[in-house]
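Onboarding guide, step 5: your first structure request.
Type a short instruction followed by the sequence, for example:

Predict the 3D structure of this protein.
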Amino acid sequence: MPVLVLGLGNPILGDDGVGWRVVEEVERRFQSSETGLPKSVEFDYVSLGGLALMERLIGYDRAILVDAIQTPGGRPGAVYRLALDDLPTAHADSAHDASLKAALELGRRLGAALPAELAIVAVEAPRVFDLGQTLSPEVEASVPAAAQAVLAALAPTLREVISPCDQFMGL
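The system replies with structure tokens like these:
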């Protein structure tokens, strides 16, 4: 079952790059582990939304999206595990700027093979429009916790690809 772990955002806009940083951390952890990266898991990094993001999700059974989020009264660096219905929509749906929910609905109506399961890991990020590649201290400090949330979301996939013998051996 192919799974896509997708870092969203823009890495040159301050905290908006946190999705990329978290996915890089998860990928680094797999590369440094003895078991390595399962062939069924793919990592990618994009600065897409709406319809373009929906197109990137085609062909995967599961997807984990990692992105910055801004919520009213949110604590900078807070890590959230969200479902699609939890996402706020800050713009009107149109052919030029559809919400992810609307884009996925359209894709399914058109017969696109989209993920049946979609998990979202979001980090509360105060500076998403500041030019620069540096995360704010609170957001930087949250990267390990957000990476752990992604690994937790990947757990069912990892159990599927590790054989019972490997489980017995403690892998």
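Each response can be followed by summary notes, for example: The beta strands are 3-8, 41-46, 62-69, 79-82, 117-124.
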